[in-house]
Amino acid sequence: MRLKISHMTEYSYAEPVEFALQRLRLTPQDCPGQHVISWQTSVNGAGREAVYTDHFGNRVELVSVNDGAQSINIMAMGEVETQERNGVFGPHIGYVPLWLYLRDTPRTKPGKLVKELARGVEGEGDLARMHGLMGTIAQTVEYKKGATDSETTAEQSMELKAGVCQDFANIFISVARHLGLPARYVSGYMLDESGMDAASHAWAEAHIQGLGWVGFDPANDICPDERYVRLASGLDYADTAPVSGMRTGDSPEMITVSVSVEQ
Q1: Which of 261, 172, 177 is nearest to 220 (CA)?
Q2: Contact assessment for residue 121 and residue 136, using Cβ atoms and an 8 Å cutoff
Q3: pLDDT over 70, % of the chain
Q4: Domain 88-239, architecture per CATH
Q5: Mean pLDDT over residues 80-93, rounded?
Q6: Using an 8 Å Cβ cutoff, are 186 and 230 in contact?
Q7: Which of 64, 77, 74, 75 is nearest to 11 (CA)?
Q8: Structural fold of domain 2-81+242-262
Q9: What's the pLDDT tens digit per position in 171-226?
Q10: Closest to 58 (Cα-Cα) out of 255, 235, 260, 259
Q11: Cα 241 from chain centroid (whole Å)
C-alpha cells in the first residue's frame, strides 16, 4: 500500500520566546514492511542544530527557536510504501540489547491492577498469550479521548478503564514485561478503516522467540498491517514522541496538530 502523509505541528506563544529546543522524531525509515519513497521536514521559526540516529535507531532532529519568535511551525510530509507482514517486524537489531526492553519505566511500571491482568493471560505459547492479552485489553479499556494525558501510567489507565492508543500500548507493554517478555513502544501513523481520516498512532511490540518483534495494537485489537507507518520505537512514549522539548520563560503556549494519511 502506498500512503501519503502530512503532519503539521504549530506552537504559538503569547510573548516572544527567550529560548526553546525541540526534538523531532518525524522521519520514518526503511525497515521490514516499509519503504520510504520520499520524505521531508521543514521548520519555520527555528533552525536545525543537529541530526542524528539515537540508541534505539530513531532518526532525530534538534531545532532551536529563533530569538524572539512567537510561533514555530513544523511540517513533515512524504510517501511511504508498506507491505502486509501480519504484524511481524522480525529479528532484533541495533545498539540496545534486548534485555533492556524488560526494564520498567515510570509509565509502564506494573501495579496491582496490571499484575491482576497479567495473571489472567492464557494461551499455549508466548504468541498466543500476547494475542489473548491484546484482546483482553481491548475489551477491558474504553477508547476515550481526554481521559488521560502523556504522563498517565499503565496502572492509572487500568484504574480509569479508559484511555487512548498510548495508554493501551502502555498497558500491553507493562503486562508483557511483567510476564518476562521484552516489549517496546512504537509511534507512527495509521490509515483508518474509511481510508480518509487518520491520526498519529501508537502500538506495542513484544519479542517472541522464533519470530522476533511482533506488533500488537490493543486500541484496535489487531496486529499492525499495511495501513501502519512506524516513526520511532523505544521503552515508552518519552523515547518516541514525534515532537518534544523544553523552553525558558512562562509565556502561555498553544499547540495545534494536524495529521493527514491517504492511500
Answers
A1: 172
A2: yes
A3: 97
A4: Roll (3.10)
A5: 96
A6: yes
A7: 74
A8: Immunoglobulin-like (2.60.40)
A9: 999 999 999 999 999 999 999 864 434 568 999 999 999 999 999 999 999 999 99
A10: 235
A11: 6
